[in-house]
Amino acid sequence: MRMRKKKNLEERLSAVGDILFISDIEDRNFKTAKDDKEYIDFKNWFKNDNPIYLEIGCGKGKFSCEYAKSHPEINLIAVEKTANVLVSACEKAKTENIENLKFLKCSAEYLEKYIMENSIERLFLNFSCPFPKKAYASHRLTHIKFLEIYKKLLKPTAEIHQKTDNMHFFEFSIEQFTLGGFKLKNISLDLHNSDFEGNIETEYEHRFASLGQPIYRLEAYLND
Q1: Assuming Cys at both sites, which of 10, 43, 67, 188 could form a disulfide with 217, CB separation 3.0 to 4.6 Å?
Q2: Does 132 fall in a domain?
Q3: 212 lies in which domain range?
Q4: What is the rounded distance in angstroms from the CA atom of residue 129 to the CA atom of residue 164?
Q5: Strand order in the sheet with 75-79
């Protein structure tokens, strides 16, 4: 079901314009992403040169806001393609005055257009849509086509941290990471009943965990 457009959405997006970059590309073949680059100047945006972390699919911003507050030594870019959802995350960050958190509205296919190669030190994929039908497997954010994009953005020693409640999607992700040449570590098949420390929940995670569903987590990397 399509989400109803939020009231005064344009005005609300404009009010958070200082922390939000909006991609207005309409090329559904995503060819534009590989053509003219429009790299975001992170140093100018954040007013520092701290390490850049990236979350793709930030939803309403619970994880990104809490993570940024807990790690003032890094800068976090939270990506979400749905304005209806993203505006809530931006407003939360503004209300809480989180200076090391900015937002990017675009599809993951466009990331290489806006983010310079070898600039991201950590990438979060939290509860991405599993697209359960096989016909839509290429839309999954851990599909090899996306991993090839991430490889360009990540620094050589960067890591990808993934969490999901979907076992089949998790198994698919492990296969794709392996196919893409990634190594895996800290794999958990039941995160909330493990000895992992420092976990920050997302909105979806809190809901699923409260129902007793296991949360799956892994860390992927290319170089030691």
Answers
A1: 188
A2: yes
A3: 49-221
A4: 9
A5: 20-22, 101-105, 75-79, 52-56, 120-126, 154-164, 216-221, 183-188
- The label of the residue with tokens 């309409």 reads 26
Q: Is 156 within a domain? A: yes
CATH number of the domain within which 181 lies: 3.40.50.150
- Three-state SS across 204-221? HHHHHHHCCCCCEEEEEE
Burial 142-181 (b: 16+ CB within 10 A, else e): bbbebbebbbebbbeebbbbbbbbbeebbebbbebbeebe
Residue 42 lies in a domain: no
Q: What whole-number distance in Å separates Cα of residue 88 and Cα of residue 12? A: 9
Q: Is 186 left (phi over 0), alpha (psi -120 to 50) or beta?
A: left
CA distance linking residue 95 with residue 80, whole number of Å: 19
Q: For the segment 158-211, what is each residue's pLDDT rounded down to a tens digit? A: 999 999 999 999 999 999 999 999 999 999 999 999 999 999 999 889 888 888
pLDDT for res 4: 61
What are 145's two structure tokens? 């086509």
As a residue count, the chain comes to: 224
- Taking the C-alpha atoms of residue 124 and residue 149, their distance in angstroms, rounded to an integer, is 14
Q: Which of 83, 110, 92 is nearest to 203 (CA)?
A: 92
pLDDT value of position 33: 67
